[in-house]
Design goal:
There is one protein chain. By secondary structure, the protein is an alpha/beta fold. Helix content is about 40%, strand content about 15%. β4, α4 and β5 form a beta-alpha-beta unit. The relative contact order is 0.12.
């Protein structure tokens, strides 16, 4: 790697998910530290990058939107910045062409057609380690200002003697979502044992599920109408996460919450082992190796095991 400290660098991220960006965060931070200045990030809006990087000293103020249709517009935006180096966290030929046509001389990228069957976080980690020629930690952190976190504690009455839990009751697809009836039972059980407050993370399309929980469980707060910039300090003010393998799980892990992720249709080896803050629960009869995409085990998770691990997490 060319380690001149005045190089201007950009990172291109193809994956669209909030959780995907969280898993890649450490790589961006390590590269920034190595070159001695912030990176520019090119990512899709759905990653929440603009909110996530608002206070991040390793990313400059502008996040360039990686739209799917504005190929030449992205090139023009990148070209105008005159970047020296580019790091592409993907095997995408499209992203490589964007970097090449933007006039970037040094382009680091995954080998083309190499994505299938790869471990998401390990592929990124090994890619960055190969560039930097040293080992890195796959876990990282979200930088946020203490003032807004304290304000969230005050606004939502988040106190140390109350179990404040971020609840990821939604997900990117129906096969990844643990049944809402079981969440209601779980939260009722927790409520009966501890003074608790449940912050329900989901979008507008998840409001029916959220409303169902709120009508059955006291001390619930819906986050569905808030944007990510307002949600992050609330998460940072809480202590625990319980829920599906979804974006808020990975945000919570990078904000140093103790997390229990329910993995029913995604591989925990790729999406939990990147961060020691994440513990996992799996469908009955499955293990870390056998739980993968298309496991479809949302109805096979032992409720008694989930309750036991949840109580253990928050005790």
């Amino acid at each position: 790697m060319n380690r001149e400290k005045n190089n201007s660098c950009v990172a291109l991220i193809k994956q669209p998910g909030i959780g995907d960006l969280q898993i890649l965060l450490s790589n961006i931070h390590h590269i920034s530290k190595e070159i001695g200045k912030p990176l520019t990030v090119v990512a899709q809006k759905t990653t929440g990058a603009k909110a996530v990087f608002k206070h991040d000293p390793h990313v400059d103020g502008e996040v360039i939107d990686l739209g799917k249709k504005d190929f030449f517009d992205i090139i023009n935006k990148i070209k105008s910045r005159k970047f020296d180096q580019c790091y592409i966290y993907s095997d995408s030929i499209r992203l490589y062409l964007i970097a090449k046509l933007s006039g970037i001389k040094k382009i680091y990228h995954y080998p083309f057609f190499s994505k299938k069957g790869k471990n998401f976080y390990k592929t990124a980690q090994e890619f960055t380690e190969g560039i930097l020629q040293k080992k890195i930690n796959s876990a990282s952190k979200i930088y946020w200002d203490k003032e807004s976190i304290e304000k969230a504690k005050k606004d939502y009455d988040i106190k140390a003697d109350i179990k404040s839990i971020i609840c990821g009751v939604a997900a990117s697809g129906p096969t990844k979502i643990y049944p809402v009836e079981n969440y209601i039972k779980l939260f009722q059980e927790i409520n009966s044992r501890f003074p608790s407050k449940f912050f329900l993370f989901g979008g507008k399309k998840d409001e029916v599920v959220i409303e169902k929980i709120m009508s059955s469980v006291p001390n619930c707060v819906s986050l569905s109408k808030l944007d990510l910039e307002k949600i992050i300090p609330i998460i940072a003010a809480c202590r625990f996460y319980i829920g599906n393998d979804t974006g808020p799980l990975h945000i919570s892990a990078n904000l140093n919450l103790k997390c229990l992720g329910i993995f029913v249709d995604s591989p925990p080896l790729a999406y939990s082992k990147w961060n020691a803050n994440i513990r996992e629960i799996l469908p009955a009869g499955e293990n870390l190796e056998s739980t993968v995409h298309n496991t479809r085990g949302k109805d096979s998770v032992s409720f008694s095991e989930l309750l036991e691990k949840s109580i253990e997490l928050i005790s």
